[in-house]
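assembly run, all chains below
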Amino acid sequence: MKVLVIGASGQLGSELCRMLDKKGIEYLGTNSKDLDITDWNAVNQYFKEYRPQLVYNCAAYTNVDGAEDTPGKIANYKVNVIGTKNVAAASEKFGATLIYISTDYVFDGNNSEMYTEKSPTNPQNEYGRAKLAGEQAVSKIMSKYYIIRTSWVFGEYGKNFVYTMLNLAKTHDHLTVVNDQKGRPTWTKTLSEFMIYAMENEIPYGLYQLSNEESCTWYEFAKEILKEQNVKIDPVTSDEFPQRAYRPKHSVMDLAKAESVGFEIISWKEALSNFINDVN
Ligand SMILES: NC(=O)C1=CN([C@@H]2O[C@H](COP(=O)(O)OP(=O)(O)OC[C@H]3O[C@@H](n4cnc5c(N)ncnc54)[C@H](O)[C@@H]3O)[C@@H](O)[C@H]2O)C=CC1
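ok done. output:
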């Protein structure tokens, strides 16, 4: 099978490629210099030449706060809406299956219940709105697709909350972290495994949610990340730590659908511990 990984140099794309390498699955990986997904002619030409059968679209504009104002607002729209549409249209045109990654920010986070794949969406920031438009484009244009919503991603190859906390701990003995936003952290290895599992096991097409098991607040996450370090961490509210983009208060996604296809998901604490062992 000819596999294409778009966004192969990002946090998730890099882990996915490492895992494909390990499994001996051949693929072609592109970064934004090889293939700009906002350019339809480039995408069309690339697909015409390479003829992928399976496309992992890991490319995205991921600066959630940057997306609130110009020029980030425009880049967010171009990459996450137009770019996603281009990749979906080319995948459909050339008969490929597409795996598109979306976000828990499609929800408003006002529920205290877990969100399922059937829960109504109501994004509260520009990034969430663009990613939802990306989801809608994929499901409208395509017949063979997986949309996988994930949240709070951390892994070896990116800028993420775990690295931020570990780095801050080198220079600070006291930190404050938001304690009124709850979600599910996701290790890129768990997510990459599911992305490969979907392909290998030909699970039914459609929308899935995937993160690690168990939920926490950012404060609880930080406490676990720094549990071996001598750093005092105090909880604060979102109001005390203002950010440009609104974040959902409770964006805990139900994982039952992914588990119902036989995929086993470890807890975020186990994932974090494995990750810290890996990078040390
Ligand atoms: N990082 C997180 O916490 C979360 C990420 N996600 C989603 O997971 C997916 C992977 O995210 P990350 O790997 O963390 O992001 P990342 O920012 O590390 O990687 C994104 C990649 O997209 C590429 N890219 C950007 N514009 C492009 C363009 N015009 N053409 C081609 N490539 C382009 C970048 O070069 C980069 O390699 C994305 O769809 C993101 O929306 C969802 C929820 C949370």
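The pocket of NAI is lined by residues 7, 9-13, 31-32, 35-38, 58-62, 79, 83, 101, 103, 131, 150-153, 158 (CB under 6 Å).

The CA atoms of residues 39 and 240 lie 41 Å apart.

not gonna interpret more than that til we talk
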